[in-house]
Write a structure and sequence with these properties.
With about 60 residues, the chain is an alpha+beta fold. Helix 2 links the parallel strand 1 and strand 2.
């Protein structure tokens, strides 16, 4: 959790999970579950296959 808070302080936002519009509805429950233990932002992006953890966050952790 410390890494998440440091990321938020440095980037002024929480880590983002990019989700394909095609799978967004199917993953709604999963994303809700993740958000209960880890603050996240979700963005729809058709350039990802199904979903992808924010590029910048995964490089720093």
């Amino acid at each position: 959790m410390k890494a998440i808070e440091e990321y938020r302080l440095n980037n002024k936002r929480y880590p983002t999970i990019y989700v394909s519009a095609k799978y967004h509805k199917q993953m709604e429950g999963l994303l809700r579950g993740i958000s209960k233990w880890m603050p996240i932002e979700v963005e729809i992006d058709d350039n990802v296959d199904r979903w992808e953890l924010g590029r910048n966050f995964s490089e720093k952790v």
